[in-house]
Design a protein that fits this description.
4 helices, alpha+beta, 13-stranded mixed β-sheet, 263 residues, 33% strand, 3-stranded mixed β-sheet, Carbonic Anhydrase II
Amino acid sequence: MNSKITLLIFGFLITAISCKKETKETHSNNTHHENAKHWSYSGETSPEHWLEIEKNSDCDGNHQSPINIIHKDVNSLDSKGDLKILYTPTTRISEVENNGHSIQFDFEEGDSINYKNETYHLKQIHFHEPSEHKINGVIYPIEMHLVHVSKTGKITVLGILGEEGEESQLFEFFESFLPLKNGVTKDINHDIDLSSLFSTEKHYYSYNGSLTTPPCTEGVNWVVFKEPIILSITEVLKLKNNMPINNYRNEQPLNDREVKLNY
């Protein structure tokens, strides 16, 4: 009888110790998870704190984006041939996702641009409201970023500002896949003609900058079009309601960089 009681007590102690260890490990893992911060646009993880969160990023670099483009200070060049838009009517969108920072449309390889004699393929389009770039201090209701990547990994982003006016068929198409909850991805596999974005002659500013989201990688070619596109206030609000409020990064110092106006 005594031996049975001893075994029962021993078994109870082993179980108690195991449970305590498991509870401690679970608490440790939960604490680690809670302490792991991810960047956002507000509060303790807003752009002002990105450098603290992204330790090995370029977010404190000297060539950051976005910037305020002051027209009187730019260097005007007759160099519009530096940019060739090679979009076709059969570009295929593979999917759309709400990544918690923006609405992003991902593309299969097809559309491309040629910038300064190098080819860059369109990878994705996403949106910021209000705009990240300013022209003469003016903030636009929306900014569209068309992200292109070369075979060597170099990045060129076309920034297109938007102002409110008439309805846009292109944005009606984009928004036909909304609403989309945070973290959700939806397959599209549909052709789209983006050439309407460049149907009229446009002038553009160019400068060397960075990604406007962590890790804020520098060495990005920026092409920001001077003339905005037009979309309705309803279309602006529909995008806004599917994204974080004010999903833009603050204006960054120009430092020693040159901004060019290409015409």
